[in-house]
Amino acid sequence: MIGAGITGAMVAESLTRRGHEVVVIDRETPGHGSTGASTAMLLWEIDRTLSELIQTYGFERAARCYTASHRAAQGLLSLARHYRIPCHIRDRLSLYLAVDDSGSALRDESDLRTRAGLPGVFLDHASLLRRFEIARAGAILSPDAADADPVELTHGLLKISIARGASVRKADATAFDSAGAKVVVGLGGRHEIEANRVVLCTGYVMPDIVRPTIQRPTSSWAIATEPQPQNLWPEDVLIWEASHDYNYARSTSDGRIIFGGEDDDSAVEPQAREALTSAKRERLRRKLRALWPKSSDKIDYCWSGAFDTTEDGLPLIGTVPGQKNIFAAYGYGGNGITFSYLAAELLATLCSGGSSPLFDDFAIDRSG
User: Fold this and answer.
1) If you write DSSP's letter for every residue of 260-311 in order, what string do you get?
2) In CATH, which superfamily holds the domain spanning 1-89+148-214+311-368?
3) What local confidence, expressed as pLDDT, does residue 84 receive?
4) Which one of 116, 127, 148, 286 has the largest count of C-beta atoms within 10 Å of its C-beta?
């Protein structure tokens, strides 16, 4: 496993649970990087609506992808609870807010989800205002979401894998050779690792052997307010907006509000992100006040992180084209941790000789 973030931890747990011998390497501290920057809103709803996916791929494929994501969110919750990982995981409802003046597009989306067998209800303006005190044209309210501490979840999963015999090492993979019976991973200098299979879980920093056509890196910013439990919206729902460049919000166990967005694909490297942070912080603060006027103006923390997005909102999971026994999992967009769990289960199936139509849906070399 190359990468000890949330995806590497998920895949390691899934493979060791099935009896595979696993070595995880990372050049950084486990759980840092994009994992540490995650706001950990564990949604099953995908960055592209079911309606958009149907227009691109047809109803059957779109519904299969949404159903797989929904099951992954449920499986992730069950996994964390089964092992009692101390990561503050909490069941949450998800509130998907209209950004237009009618809400008709969300009503149609809700009808399509019902047809696909997905849970949730449409709330009109009056119902939304009455229950959640938010003045938008409408929203879809869905169950089976959650939030958590992503770093503690990563450490907990790695600890479980290590207890089963996995090894976690600090190393930088610099070369890959899959021509022989084993995959050879060069670590720089004179050291190499030979493995039956290699899984790349390195997020947006993929090695050159991976050449997707519909993926691009981007950055997102988030703020966290001072603790203000007296000012939170009803039911602590996870909130996000029905637009491609959406804002999102959740509360924490100590009563802070985390609010994120302001995605920008022109500033991916750390120095470029840092140069924009002050302006992004102020815009996020204003947008939070517009969404929830009761919120305190005091911002205790602001941070950013880089991640991958795809044109269709679906992840990239499966065999690396042209590379025997090398697999990759990334391109998650806003569904990072949910898709990490889905990738872990799919790759464990693949390593055990199984198959799934989802490998075609999520193929690394697919066109958008």
Assistant:
1) EEEEETT--SHHHHHHHHHHHHHHHHHHHHHH-TTS-S-EEEEEEEEEEEET
2) FAD/NAD(P)-binding domain (3.50.50.60)
3) 96
4) 148
